[in-house]
Amino acid sequence: MSAAFDRRVIPAEAAESRWIAPDGQAIRRIDWHRPNPRGAILFMGGRGDFYEKYLEALAHWHLQGWTLTAFDWRGQGGSGRLGKDPYTGHIDDYGTWVADLGALWSDWSGTVSGPRIAIGHSMGGHLALRAAAEGAIDPTALVLCAPMLGLRDGNMPDWLMHGLARLMCQLGDPARPAWKWSEKPGQPPDSRGDLLTHDPERYADELWWRDARPEVVMGPGSWRWVERAYASMRWLGQREVLARVKQPVLLLATDQDALVSYKASARAAERLPRCEVVNFGERARHEILREADPVRLEALARIDAFLTKVTA
What we know:
The protein is α/β, with parallel strands linked by helices. It has helices spanning 55-63, 94-109, 123-134, 158-171, 192-196, 200-212, 223-236, 239-242, 262-271, 293-310; strands at 15-20, 26-32, 39-44, 66-71, 116-121, 141-145, 249-253, 275-279. It has an eight-stranded mixed sheet with strand order 1-2-4-3-5-6-7-8, with helices on both faces.
């Protein structure tokens, strides 16, 4: 992608709109079509994300010949909120998101041609993989970037963390924030950028969009989000569940990730029938697609090569 690409402008050829889920929930989306495409990519961001953060990656794939669609998950980004305040990310169950993805995929598939690729970052990677395992989507291939298959490795096993999260939901309002973000609601802590990328300019792009479009601002997840995250990750991590995913999978990750578990990703990769893994190690933080150019361009090149191979 050329350095001249403006990461703070919606491309003129792209169209922003609302897709209405079967239950009436409005989901914000962006579509970037091209004539005679080689296929179509549906991109899914992570928890608290919004699609503006990934315009640069979308532009790269568009230049490679793909038609693009990205969207904000129900309850975050420009798709509204499900909690009791404007900033907390809340969900009743991850199955709600899988149902949204399945319905959107069905509608979207009827409007595009060629191979259909699902690309997901972090929570989006988790949900794309789960949807494929459940048969809610049928992509030609999946690309998972730092997928949320486990939360940051700690000293306690997931079953115990899940139990503690269930207890916290029982002890108070499950929609309340599960962690403190900063002293000023809606404002990220100064250290947040260090968890996401080595590139301060790309991190600054996110802050710029938050100022330009305040509706995308999100803070911590709710206790129910945490509890349902553990429930979904534990289910998806089972050997027999991952064995259902017959599509080729490219998994990009870093064992230095401070937000999601690399061990969980490596374990899932061993259980997936057709999975390639790339570990960027200390060169990358969580947002691999928004890293400094040496890592970002390598990641994109690996995705390009993988997509060429699986669609040949």
